[in-house]
Amino acid sequence: MKTIIYLAHDDLASSSSQQFLVASGRHLTEATYVDLGAQWQADPTFDRSEELDRLAQYDRVIFQFPLYWYQAPAVLKVWIDQVLDQGTGLGFIAGKELGLVVIAGAPARNYQLAGREGVTVSDLLSPYYALSRYLGMRFLEPFTIFQFAYLSEAEKMRLMYDYALYLKTGEARRFNDLQDMIIQALQDLDLNLSPVDQVVFDQFVMALEDQAQSLKDYQAVDQWEEDRNV
User: Fold this and answer.
1) Are strands 97-104 and 143-146 parallel, antiparallel or unpaired?
2) Which residues form the Flavodoxin-like fold domain (predicted)?
3) 188 vs 82: CA distance, rounded Å
4) To the nearest whole number, what is the mean pLDDT of the chain?
5) How many Å apart are CA 1 and CA 12, to the nearest integer?
6) Helices (H), 86-192
7) What does the pLDDT look like over 154-169, one tens digit per residue?
8) pLDDT tens digit sequence for 89-99
């Protein structure tokens, strides 16, 4: 499945989060990136025919953007208005997937009904769900990143693989979920090993389980300390 990512940002070069994601995606996947901000600055009118021809080549479409005042940067709305909002020549879009990669500067706990923002990220992104239904696309669970600037190097490494997995599969799985999935798959294998080899294999799986649990414990402590310092 071929994936195209439309980057909606006013100044991509100045964004550390966008630079990190684009570098990760290009290194780990074969996805295509389109810098809408640069295109718009060069010409405020998108060529609808060219844009639709490009869009037709891909199966999974992803809009990637930071939340600016609870919404995407204006360039994404302009692109949608000029390319998708004319009602003709869009039949080929039905059946494609629409995903979102969203970067929020505030912590996740703020985006709750009882949180500081008073709304969820899902609420803010609901227009894209409506757009996907209108176009007959399959809407993917959004991939949301909170407070990129405060992530540790270890967290950025996990983010890199989570992000690449989203581009490849359209599933917003997290590193911990992937670990659990791999461990379960290993446990389900029927390898017909000799007794000695089976012991070695079981020890290997147990070591993976211990590492996964240690990681979860560290993450729980980090979250507790973060909540305590609020």
Assistant:
1) parallel
2) 1-155
3) 51
4) 86
5) 26
6) 121-124, 126-135, 153-169, 175-188
7) 889 889 988 998 999 8
8) 899 999 999 99
Residue 7 and residue 72 in contact, taking contact as beta carbons nearer than 8 Å: no
Low-confidence ranges of the chain (pLDDT < 50): 221-222
Tokens of 116: 């500081």
Q: What is the pTM of this model?
A: 0.76
For 52-66, the pLDDT digits (tens) are 999 999 999 999 999
Q: How far apart are CA 190 and CA 33, in angstroms?
A: 41
Which of 118, 119, 100, 107 minimizes the C-alpha distance to 149?
107
Which sign, positive or negative, has the C-alpha torsion 205, 207, 213, 218? Answer: negative
Number of neighbouring beta carbons within 10 Å of residue 104? 19
Q: Which residue has 């390319």 as its token pair? A: 83
CB contact at 8 A, 6 and 36:
yes
